[in-house]
């Protein structure tokens, strides 16, 4: 447990220092402010399509820090030094997942508030959007981390990470954006299921990817 | 703590479909040291990683008793952190007392650099920092890959003192180096004797 906290604290500090925290927030706000220019200032249209657009922006924002999540530590030998100390790769990835979500999930949820205001979303939609992001951002963080472990050490890993992550993110997008027009709460439950699945498999799949990358 | 030991028998290593070496035997008991010798690319670093358990041997067995500390060409210290804080992250994972780090910093003469960010350190100072992590770890088995690279004479003496102290305490040191290292009576592993010769294939 101490090991997990030590690792997570370092990961959080590292992402803070590498400005990896502000990039997704700035991206989300930028997209939200550009969108009305593209589709016109029609309030009804913005209101209807804005929530789904913010989900796409959140998804793409989660891919921005992918190339800095695992590759620098792999190249610097940090992952090997951790392995020498008998700490499992699963623990390393779990700590990193916690740190990555803490750095990016809440920040994205806060940034959604001004972004929603720019798109004239009403209170109920903002509530659903925030609830969906609370459930969905751990999955986005897990997905970003998973493709980061898979592509670490490859050339042009950033582009490849996008190609790998986007198909896997489709269920999140469908259920996430689906919560906005759905009164029954079923989409929220499906989103929770997809999120749990991704969060649960990421430490194991990511740990296996790091071990395989050593050979 | 049980007795430290490192035993290799008939170890072979293939990288990228090419056999680098085979039939490497090594039996290290407490207080023993070994020096890997051989030209570049013969697989000294790969053998180090096999000893460390980071790489699987293609053939043969590796038997380790005791924790491992490795200093290779990669620093693995956070560049933006002050040296002391960067090293403390590792001693925290090692769960050693904090005076172990102080002793290691003193042993590598890094006292004046404690608060200097790691990215500001020179090549030799970085190497000393990596060696300080090995010393602080308290691990009985030290694997040193080119530990003398970039070190000046004074620092080489410090390294020699640290290694001698470690061996006297019953530790094990395996080093790969082109420079003469201050090891008293190392077992020499001449890697070229184990290299895979094409004509035999």
TrEMBL record, chain A:
Main location: membrane
Keyword Transmembrane appears in the UniProt entry: yes
Residues passing through the membrane, by range: 21-40, 52-71, 92-119, 131-152, 159-178, 190-210
InterPro entries: Cyt_c_biogenesis_CcmB (IPR003544), Cyt_c_CcmB_bac (IPR026031)
Localization (cell): Cell inner membrane
Membrane topology: Multi-pass membrane protein
Record keywords: Cell inner membrane, Cell membrane, Cytochrome c-type biogenesis, Membrane, Transmembrane, Transmembrane helix, Transport
Function: Required for the export of heme to the periplasm for the biogenesis of c-type cytochromes.
Family per similarity comment: Belongs to the CcmB/CycW/HelB family.
Protein name: Heme exporter protein B
Species this protein is from: Sphingobium fuliginis (strain ATCC 27551)
Gene: cycW
UniProtKB/TrEMBL annotation, chain B:
Metal-binding as UniProt keyword: no
Protein name: Cytochrome c biogenesis ATP-binding export protein CcmA
Organism: Sphingobium fuliginis (strain ATCC 27551)
Keywords: ATP-binding, Cytochrome c-type biogenesis, Membrane, Nucleotide-binding, Translocase, Transport
InterPro entries hit by this protein: AAA+_ATPase, ABC_transporter-like_ATP-bd, ABC_transptr_haem_export_CcmA, P-loop_NTPase
GO terms of molecular function: ATP binding
Gene3D superfamilies per the UniProt record, alphabetical: P-loop containing nucleotide triphosphate hydrolases
One Pfam family from the record: ABC_tran
ABC transporter domain: residues covered: 6-201
Transmembrane segments: none
Keyword Secreted: no
